[in-house]
Amino acid sequence: MKQNEQTGIFYTAFSYFLWGILPIYWKWLNHVAADEILANRVFWSFWFMLLFLFFTKRWKAFTSYIKSSLTKKKQLAALLLASLLISANWFIYIWAVNTNQMVEASLGYYINPLVSVLLGVFILKESLSKAQIVSFILAAAGVLILTFSYGEFPWIAMGLAFSFGLYGLAKKLIKVDSAIGLTLETMTIAPISLIYMGYMFTTGSSSIFTVSLGTDLLLMGAGAVTAIPLLFFSKGAQQIPLYMVGFLQYVSPTITLILGVMVYGETFSGTHLISFIFIWIALVIFTASRIQFARKRRREAKLSA
Q1: Is residue 175 predicted with pLDDT exceeding 80?
Q2: Among 1, 44, 66, 277, which residue's CB has the most CB atoms within a 10 Å radius?
Q3: Which H, E and C letters describe the chain, residue by residue?
Q4: What is the mean pLDDT of the segment spanning 92-98?
Q5: CB 243 within 8 A of CB 75
Q6: Of 33-42, 64-73, 197-206, which gets the smallest average pLDDT?
Q7: What is the pLDDT of residue 84?
Q8: Tell me: the pLDDT tens digits for 124-168?
Q9: HSE on the CB side for 212, CA within 13 Å?
Q10: Distance from C-alpha of 67 to C-alpha of 70, rounded to nearest angstrom
């Protein structure tokens, strides 16, 4: 294995590890309402990313992209949509963690790759392989088992999976460096976040600058804990094959699942186990088919070179 590929695996795996343990951070803020955490996360992420772009000398690329996008209505619409979708995704996740529903949140990120492919079929008119069809049937069976067993549809899991899947589709239209992309997305929502934070402060319901220094630092630090994993991911993913990125993405929900059950004492019943087994088998088949397809493409590329 080449040195740059080893480095890429480390950075990518580390980014997923950080995303996996992120619920610990939100648990430290469980005395703060999820909507206020979200507002602070967006607002401070924007300022963190501005500083990052400035110190990494990407400011010119950032401003150039803004200028070139002002005349492209489709790109601006995609940016707004991406900003709203990632904000919705963040809110659902924070709320799920702080209401002791991390198991279902992990389910959402397990099925997200399958949902993304499904969206590609219906929206981008992509075709499905036999392995992907089998994966969907198994994953659907897992979701249905949970639904019929508890008499309630797993809205958190599906909300996370579809919001992030649709976010990925919107990002296809933006086509920009991930650091600049996150800056643009948070910039779009930051004014709304600031207005909401100001409203909460004037009504006396705000936690920042009113509860404790620890709470202030955690809320402001939400910007850094949002951006840092993404920066590691963007650095690592460029150096490894796409199928390997797809394989490593399961690190994050696995850590979240373990934290929910082993650390925070959430229920993981026999029904959960059966449902997750169906979904895990679906993901094994799905990932294996992607790896096989990627290797086939690489062989064909070598032969045609």
Answers
A1: no
A2: 44
A3: CCHHHHHHHHHHHHHHHHHHHHHHHHHHCCCCCHHHHHHHHHHHHHHHHHHHHHHCCCHHHHHHHHHHHCCCHHHHHHHHHHHHHHHHHHHHHHHHHHCCCHHHHHHHHHHHHHHHHHHHHHHCCCCCCHHHHHHHHHHHHHHHHHHHHHCCCCHHHHHHHHHHHHHHHHHHHHCCCHHHHHHHHHHHHHHHHHHHHHHHHHCCCCCCCCCCHHHHHHHHHHHHHHHHHHHHHHHHHCCCCHHHHHHHCCHHHHHHHHHHHHHCCCCCCHHHHHHHHHHHHHHHHHHHHHHHHHHHHHHHHHHHC
A4: 96
A5: no
A6: 64-73
A7: 95
A8: 787 878 888 898 899 999 999 988 887 888 999 999 999 999 998
A9: 7
A10: 6
Q: Summarize pLDDT for 77-94 with one digit per residue, the tens.
A: 889 999 999 999 999 999
Structure token digits, residue 219: 């809320």
Classify residue 132 as exposed, middle or buried by CB count within 10 Å of its CB (0-12, 13-18, 19+). buried
